[in-house]
């Protein structure tokens, strides 16, 4: 158990509404990530964080913003949800093992935008 | 840029059959390579990894060897079980000290009794 929780686990929202997803870790790791998973695309990186208030864009960052005010929490916000953002969202942490970084994933949030 | 290509699924096998899921990569440096597994309704779990050429990663009966000459990291298991039914993802990080992952599209495995 990597000590990662995500909330909510499921959400249905309407187009144009703001949505915030939360990722919480209990292990104080520096690196945290948000991915989306869509059929045929695997996982694609949205944003990542390398410390409190330090974040950067990933491959598919348009329409998303993030914040990290505490080590343990990494928030993903959809400012104005669109149907193309219907997806499963995964948070991950990345401890250093001594020879490589490994990523450990949360259980996911299934978001449906109607 | 770097990329990962996996064989398309679904792969359908009978219990106790031999499994191979192909993974090839494109990278400019010396990446670390990973296989992750995702069971229905769950997040991804790290299955095995290899950090340098000719390394073999292994776990739960699964194996994969880092082949730099063929830029491949094929996943194998000698005798699959119904409980191995899942989606398998190949991934790379550009170098051992780099923490962002690039994933393949995933391969769904269905094992029937």
Structure description:
The complex is a heterodimer of chains A (114) and B (113). Chain A is mainly beta and 114 residues long. Chain A contains no helices and eleven strands. Chain A is globular, with a radius of gyration of 13 Å. The mean pLDDT of chain A is 93. Chain B has no helices and twelve strands. The model of chain B has no long low-confidence stretch (mean pLDDT 93). Chain B is an all-beta fold. Chains A and B meet through strand 5 and strand 10 of A and strand 6 of B.
What is the topology?
The complex is a heterodimer of chains A (114) and B (113).
Chain A: E1 4-7, E2 10-13, E3 19-25, E4 32-38, E5 42-51, E6 54-57, E7 64-70, E8 73-78, E9 87-93, E10 104-105, E11 109-113
Parallel strand pairs in A: 2-11
Antiparallel strand pairs in A: 1-3, 3-8, 4-5, 4-9, 5-6, 7-8, 9-10, 9-11
Chain B: E1 3-6, E2 11-14, E3 19-21, E4 23-26, E5 32-38, E6 44-50, E7 56-59, E8 62-65, E9 75-77, E10 86-93, E11 101-103, E12 107-112
Parallel strand pairs in B: 2-12
Antiparallel strand pairs in B: 1-4, 3-9, 5-6, 5-10, 7-8, 8-9, 10-11, 10-12
Mean pLDDT over the full residue set of chain A: 93
Number of strands of chain B: 12
Number of DSSP helical runs of chain B: 0
How far apart are the termini of chain A?
A: 33 Å
Structural class of chain A: mainly beta
Average residue pLDDT of chain B = 93
User: Which ranges of chain A are low-confidence, i.e. pLDDT below 50, for 5 or more consecutive residues?
Assistant: none
Features:
heterodimer; A: 114 residues; mainly beta; 7-stranded mixed beta sheet; 4-stranded antiparallel beta sheet; 0% helix; 55% strand; globular; B: 113 residues; 6-stranded mixed beta sheet; 50% strand
Q: In summary, what is this structure?
A:
The complex is a heterodimer of chains A (114) and B (113). Chain A is 0% helix and 55% strand.
